[in-house]
Amino acid sequence: MQAVILDVDGTLVLSNDAHAQSWVDAFEDFGYHIAFEKVRPLIGMGGDQVIPRMVPGLNKEEGDGKKVSERRKELIIQKYGPKLQATPGARQLIQRMKQQGLKLVIASSATSQELEILLKVAKVDDLLDEATTSSDAEASKPEPDIVEAALSKLEVQPNEVVMLGDTPYDVQAASAAGIGMIAVRCGGFEDAQLEGVLEIYDDPADLLAHYDESLLSKK
């Protein structure tokens, strides 16, 4: 194991519910009534994937879809971002991986502005500086573009890297990129939805507690 590709939302920050609510609020602002329960299972996908699934005919690039996307971003940055909390053990796990000499890179469907806020919430903004965001990929998760972009930054082979994530869309993106994944449950998805992962833990603190038995220690 030489490197770890890191998801952020739901993995390092308890933000998945906030993202779902921001979509609900943003759609509502433009006259579209979307239930929280409808959008919550899609969190982990980027806006290019979420918008047409919620309102067929809309897309992120134009018209109301673009307006909804921009409004959602505003809500995360201005309203919900300041209230977010790190997942248990997020900073300590990153520190442990860095001490071991693992290369770390973020692969997130968030925008660079959102990512800046999220890393501060997770208290890892001083530890992580290599990232791929929504602007680095044509399509967001579950497509593999962002993970592949992260892999190219690492300059390691797929069998020397693992992804740490929390959603079925992380699993799909990692798999399509030929990378194994360690999952955490703190994103709110059931184990059955995370089928195919190599290991699964409650949260970063749980992974840290079992670090010496995990794949991460196999350097």
Automatic annotation (TrEMBL):
Any one of the GO BP annotations: DNA repair
Keywords from the UniProt entry: Hydrolase
GO molecular function, one term: phosphoglycolate phosphatase activity
Transmembrane segments: none
GO-annotated cellular components: cytosol
Alphabetized InterPro entries for the sequence: HAD-like_hydrolase_sf (IPR050155), HAD-like_sf (IPR036412), HAD-SF_hydro_IA (IPR006439), HAD_2 (IPR041492), HAD_sf (IPR023214), PGP-like_dom2 (IPR023198)
Protein name: Hydrolase
Organism of origin: Gloeocapsopsis dulcis AAB1 = 1H9
